Amino acid sequence: MLVAHAAGLGLIPGRLLDDPAFLLEAPATVVSMAIKQLRSDTAERSRRSRMWRLIPRDAPAADRALLLRIGAQRFDVKALVTALEAATREAAEGDWQLAKAIEWVQPDGSRDTRVIQVAATAPGPHAAVITVRDDDSLAFWDPSDGTSLRGAVSVPGILPDDVTVAVVESGAVALVPTLQRGIWLVPCRGDTAPVPVPELLPPRPGGAAGAGLVPIHLALHPGGHVLLAAGPGVWTGRLGAGAVRKRATMDARVHSVHAAGPVGEAVAWIVLESGHLRRLRLDDGPGQTVVPFPIPRPPLAVAVCPAGDRALIADITGALHLRGTTGGNALGRETRGSELRAVALSASAAAVAGGSGDRSGWLEIHDLAGAATPSRLRLDEAAVAVVMYGEDKMLVARASGLLSIRLPHRRGRAAGHRAGRHG
Question: Which of 104, 120, 288, 373 is most open to solvent, judged by the fewest CB atoms within 10 Å of its CB?
């Protein structure tokens, strides 16, 4: 009562608002009143108010600390960010462990546009991350700290979800398809304008007179391989090597395509709307392989392990299915329904992300070695996309921008190669 009365009279020192322990332990109404007393700097008061609205009163302490760390960086509350870095650095265990995993959070972006998709290269000296916004513009970021690599870029046409990016011989580049049957090559650094690459376009359905908007699904491999699908057709080619060639006609429309594996041993995963999966060698090798055990319902989101040996598919109910070249298993038995937005996969971990509305987001991390139950983290807003960045880091996209999370050290080898239950 006395603390609340002091807050109402403006007697709580402003420096207490930079104390993480005070923010997490004081009654929420006391903190709200103390923030309202910051009359000298309206911009600072607005940033702190928006940050504080992210912290649910009834959440566990670890979740509140995590959201405080995200919110302080998102809304650029500098003094609090500094204090949080010190608090998490000194914490060995307990409620600060989740907050300690946050590497960086991009500042709150424009309220006029929203991030809807993300794509990233493999880690390395020329790495890049691309976000797609709902105005069809592309932004390019450094995955080490979330800073911009070049100005925003737009290409003529409407973008589908299949923007793809890789570090090839010429550096990090993106291939951007449009619903108007265009494909554009965009360097991730510098100020070079997008360049059309019409030689990569597959033939129109029904011949030259074919009409209508048929989405082009696209994947780029670091070895220069390009994988395309439109309707049930699949084509492959290489950057700078002329026209693509037809590789297969599937027995259903293609949902998505994915290129993975090391340079020289590149493979393609082709996921059909029917739930069946195909795997192709992009380098010299045998033809397509039918992956055992199709998923039982249509796919919603797909991720492929960088090694190219496994895929994680979420179906339209939110159930998860792990598939490899020798079999498959269900990853947990729960369903997540319409809240699930994206999945990601590495050799040792799988991530599932989603949320409802703008304020309720979550990230679920599965240890594929099976050593622990999945971790579930609360986010400041719904996740719209997630990518694994190496074995110990992931990038999560929300409408406001990106954040980077360091995964905890995981012991043992991933168990995805072992036989499991069929999903």
Answer: 373
